[in-house]
Amino acid sequence: MSVTPDQSKKVGVGVSPSPSPFLTPRPERRRRTLEWNPNRQDKDKEVNVQVLLRCRPLSDDEQRLNVQKVISCNEHKREVTVLQSLNNKQVDRVFTFDRVFGPKSQQKSIYDQAISPIVNEVLDGFNCTVFAYGQTGTGKTYTMEGGMRNKSGNLPAEAGVIPRAVRHIFETLEAQNADYSVKVTFLEIYNEEITDLLAPDDNPRTAEDRQRKSISLMEDGKGCVIVRGLEEEAVYNVNEIYTVLERGSAKRRTADTLLNKRSSRSHSVFSITVHIKEATVGDEELIKCGKINLVDLAGSENISRSGAREGRAREAGEINKSLLTLGRVINALVEHSTHIPYRDSKLTRLLRDSLGGKTKTCIIATISPTAQCMEETLSTLDYACRAKNIKNKPEANQKMSKAVLLRDLYSEIERMKEEVRAAREKNGVYIPRERFVQEEAEKKARIEKIEQLENDLNLTEKQAESFRELYLSEQEQKLDLQSELKACKISLETSNKALLDLQEKYQVAITTLKEKELIISKMLFSENLLIGRAKELRTDLQNASEEMNSLYEKLGKAAQVLDSKIKKITETYSSGVSALKELANMLKTKASSDLEQINAKVLSQTVAVEKFLVTAVMEANEVIQDIQYSLDEQKQLLAFSTRQQEEVLQRSLISTQVISKATGNFFDDLHDRACQVMRSLEESQIQRVHQLVNFEKMFKEEAAKEEKQAMEKIAVILATLTSKKASIVSKASTNIQDTSKQDNTRLQKEMFVIQQVATDAGKELSEYFGKVESNFMTDTFSAAESHAIMENCLQECSERVGNSRKQWEKAQLAINTLNQNSVAKIEATVKENISANHSAHEEFVSTSSHVDADFNAIASDTLSCVNASLMLDHEKTKEIDSMATLCLDQLKSVQDKHGEGVSTIRNEAEKRLVKDYLVDKHSGGTKKRVIAVPTVESIEEMRSSIEVTEDCISDNKSKRSQMESKTPGPRTPFADVN
Ligand SMILES: Nc1ncnc2c1ncn2[C@@H]1O[C@H](COP(=O)(O)OP(=O)(O)OP(=O)(O)O)[C@@H](O)[C@H]1O
């Protein structure tokens, strides 16, 4: 601290005083005495401000009230613990300091441990400062002053830092037997006014007088602060200092508050300056100078808690303000700020050199142990902790040569002598005219300057106020704009997200659409292929069907022909049989006498019939085999058709599988493309984020720039800028919103259309697949069903053919048995009738002429009938042959054989009939004509077997027509598409 008294004041001298010893030396002055400076190596050494912590004991009242203690001091560990509980949880806070003194610590131990070394530094030529800081009522004054002296003149136990330091200094100097001088100053800062507590007290009673006597701080232009008009008192022993101290302390403003009955309402600074003559170097005598400032700060206080009222409230406000400035200075020093706000209060201006300067500094932080003061205690502890980080560069004051000191002192004496002389001559205060004029001019100029400065100050204050208001409103606007910007950003982000989502969906939909189009085109292509294939198959099927139809037609015709042929045969048979019957009847009636011949003829005829039947059965078997062969062929044809259909269906299945595979590939592609789209969207998102960051940065820079301009151009430009900014932001926001809305609407429409298209396509596709599947299933099922029906039909046909064969065989047996029985009966009858014939022979001969005529007539009739019948048969055979040529080869051969068989029978019968007729004629009617004809019963049996065969054939026909109707037409799974 460079608290330097005004040099115009008179001071007592131990060693002759001069202005120089009281000024902090400047670098240029140091250069002159550099070679004498023993502390050169210490110059650049940084030393932290030393911070001690003292916790006072509980007062009597507090003990009586049993107040809770929340502070625990560990002097050994140098730690202070604040015991805190939060939500029933112990959350203690621990602070560490250079030294910690608990409630039981004594004044002496504090001094000996912490302050004594500092005083020694002072005696070594350093400037040092000790100041007490803490909440009101925590023992700052007690620590700094304590009890001064007792009646015996000794130091009492409660003596504080100041009396002990004073005693220490004198004792040390006396012990060294040194030439020295000790000067003290004592000032207080009350409501930002400095008062000299040692100034002669003309009228000390009123505050106004004291106000009048307030002294000001000035800078000497070299970085030192001068307290103009501060009384510097020389003291020669401890008691004098005590007297001075007591006098000054008595003047300090105190008040009764809730927390302290004698609360100091001002900051006090007690300074001791020591000049010591040192050992000589050659002829030169050196003087070293050290100074200690002992500062008792007013207590920081919570106004409501300390009970400060009315005038006291302003007092407390001022105290807190200067302490706040002290805190800001400490913070700025700790944070190495470029600007340290020393000038913001008188306290910090005075302590400038002690905080971050060349002075060694010690802070004693005082706290109360009670729970009710915990808030302030924590604040003090934080404050003190921060102060630990302040770094000073202590420098010993340079020693001065005695000659220089004397020269300065002599010139000062001369000046003072002149003043004394002038005063004597004028019987008043005299100063030389030149100096008076000069001082008056200076005074006038100073007053004018002060007025101007005051005006400037007022103006500046007003401006500052308006700027402050402007700044505040600007800040508010800025906050509003920031919040708007934030909201805008959020909405922009939301819109961007929505937009991105829509874009993503849009892209996905477009890709899906494209892929679907691709699938559809592929499907159309494959469908066309299938349709082509189906057409081919249809043509094949149609051909097959036509072939089958023609086959069926041929078979039908053949069957019809066979049918008609059989009918004709039957008719022929029946007509032949009836003719034969008539003939037999005629022969029976007309040739009863020729029974033996008839019997023989019957036997031979029976054999012939047997032969005929065997032949007929064989022929029937052959016909049946041919039918079986035809059926087998149909079976094969059907199996082939079924296989073809199965192959078609198989190919359809493979095509569907190919389509399914293509669809799978499409979905894979879709996935890949979606990934690509996602990546590109992420990139675009990053770009947007970058753009937003750049926009934000630009906006901030622009805002800062505009803010600066607004500060310079005051409200108008600011208003314009604000409106401009607002309009820009609102415009940008509106534009973004409009664009976003338009995009949203457009995208929503497109999305709707795409969704519809996608849904329709999906539906069509699924329907299409459903149809294909159902067609496939139906076709497969109906093909299998048809196959089964065909097989059943064919099986039934085979069975019926087998039955027919058995019936034919049965018929043959029956005819044989019948023939044998008939032959036996005829033989018996013939034997019986032989005798009767013999007796009737005579009668027969007589009537033979008549009978012969009748016989001839009948025979000719019969012959003509037979001829006609033969002719008919021949025609029919021809007809059958011509029709048989139209039928399949197997039927033709059957017909041929059948025709041949029939004609053979007819020829045989005709030949025999003619032969018998001729024999009979040549024998003169003696030989009886015997015509072997089948019996009525055997013919009926044959007819019935033929009917069974006919039934079987017609049944086969109906089955075939059923099969035709059930056989699936030439269809394709894509018939619907056609
Ligand atoms: N360590 C201590 N031992 C005994 N008493 C103490 C101690 N510290 C303070 N006291 C007593 O507490 C009271 C208040 O102390 P003091 O006036 O020194 O506080 P202060 O911090 O200077 O308060 P203010 O800031 O209001 O001036 C005094 O009565 C003082 O004697």
Automatic annotation (TrEMBL):
GO terms for molecular function: ATP binding; microtubule binding; plus-end-directed microtubule motor activity. Transmembrane segments: none annotated. It holds the Pfam family Kinesin. Residues 1-41, 947-978 are annotated as: Disordered. Residues 954-963 have a biased composition (Basic and acidic residues). ATP binds at residues 134-141. InterPro entries: KIF11-like, KIF11-like_kin_motor_dom, Kinesin_motor_CS, Kinesin_motor_dom, Kinesin_motor_dom_sf, P-loop_NTPase. Its main location: cytoplasm. Residues 406-470, 534-561 form a coiled coil. Signal peptide: none annotated. PROSITE patterns: KINESIN_MOTOR_1 (PS00411), KINESIN_MOTOR_2 (PS50067). PANTHER family: KINESIN-LIKE PROTEIN KIF11 (PTHR47970), KINESIN-LIKE PROTEIN KIN-5B (PTHR47970:SF32). This is Kinesin-like protein. It comes from Prunus avium.
